[in-house]
Amino acid sequence: KVLILDFGSQYTQLIARRVREAHVYCEIFPCNADFEKIKAFEAKGIILSGGPSSVYEEDAPRVDERVFEMGLPVLGICYGMQLAGQHFGGVVAPSNHREYGRAVLSYESSCGLFKGLEGNGTLTVWMSHGDRLEKMPEHFDIVAKTDNAPAAAMKHHSREIYAIQFHPEVTHTEQGKAILENFVVGICGCRQIWTTENFIQAEIERVREKVGGRKVLCGLSGGVDSSVVAVLLHEAIGDNLVCVFVDNGLLRLNEREYVEKTFREHYKINLVVADAEERFLTALAGVTDPEKKRKTIGNLFIRIFEEEARKIGDFDFLAQGTLYPDVIESVSFKGPSATIKSHHNVGGLPEDMKFQLVEPLRELFKDEVRDVGRKLGLPEVMVGRHPFPGPGLGVRVLGEITKKRCDVLRQADAIFIEELHNANLYNTIWQAFAVLLPVNTVGVMGDGRTYENACAIRAVYSSDGMTADWAHIPYDVLGKISNRIINEVRGINRVVYDISSKPPATIEWE
Ligand code: XMP
User: Which residues form the active site (predicted)?
Assistant: First the structure.
């Protein structure tokens, strides 16, 4: 396995994903991790990430310099290169030619990093830096250059220390994955045994060992993560797993039936469905403030989940779909951020319920979770699903939430999603949904006047939901969606398309 030390680059997680795609396990530690912890990880090689700082700044993030002296191969990327350069006696300075974007790299094919690449000595690579090595460190050879960076890659004469100025982890760099694979496999000598099948096998054994014959409770939302957790745990412990699904009346069309069919009928999982639509709608009656809606829904969810848990009786473990990005301690250069929206997850269960957590996905990235789901036989429509927020339609029916308005929105949303599938666009879009606006507009249908609701449709490209771009859906597809919604859904007579990016807008409207 390989250790990635993070200096705060927006691309650090991408490095990890590329390494894992080469079937080599890796983890990310913050650059200031304790040296003892770094040693204890027993990596076969170390990658130093990029970062937004300059190594000559006073408070620039550093790493314990003993990492260069452990006898392990090291690959410094961008900021990591400058840090390695400085450690070995080079000088880093601001460059007159800052480089952002594509550049043409000429490389020496004899260097281990570039072995076996197609391209005859040149590659298009992605650069993003304002600093560069002004004076080379001693004992290093230049192994690649670009027009603006005479030292775009270098290697120590006698040791396996490599450094590159460009970013092999981004898709804009041609064969970047092969370069990283050359490092982790060819140079570090890692075996390529990190595969979905091996993960599933190992995790099933790990869960069996931890849980023994005891009971595990799992909150199932129908989303990708909790679905994969449920099926994986069911493989491991069978009927000792009990899943609880809360029908809060704020779900997508046919969601509850779909969950029951998939998990109860197909997988034969012990599934308890809490029928709580009325309680949610009663609690939400008259509530229009977005934060108040979120709090009402979140609190009631926890109360109902707890009631169901108590009905089931004693259990020793609670399963959660925590993923690796949730547990990485990243180097953050931002201060505490303001609460934009309060998100909720099952975190607020009362203290007197004594259980331990089971988090079988905590080593995985989202794309790996999807692969595990596929291997466990979950249907593609389930593993490839867009994210859906905990408060559900509660934050998509703007204004007052009533059953009728939820039903109207459910239908419009289902048509929108169906047409995205028909146009083969669903998988290129990160999230798409309809929003019911608390606005009535005038229309004309046949010879009659209508005065009904407007509906907004929203579709975004994103990689993690933190930033997003509105999706450029072709006009003819938008036209078809609008036509179908207005014709088929009673209560909607106008459709608008949301063309706001995040920031400054957020993805959800509330
Ligand atoms: P925003 O609207 O903040 O959404 O740009 C970013 C992503 O988070 C989802 N979201 C939630 N997910 N509980 C969740 O589990 C919530 O309360 C919640 N609110 C928003 C949203 O759908 C988008 O994917």
Answer: 78, 167, 169
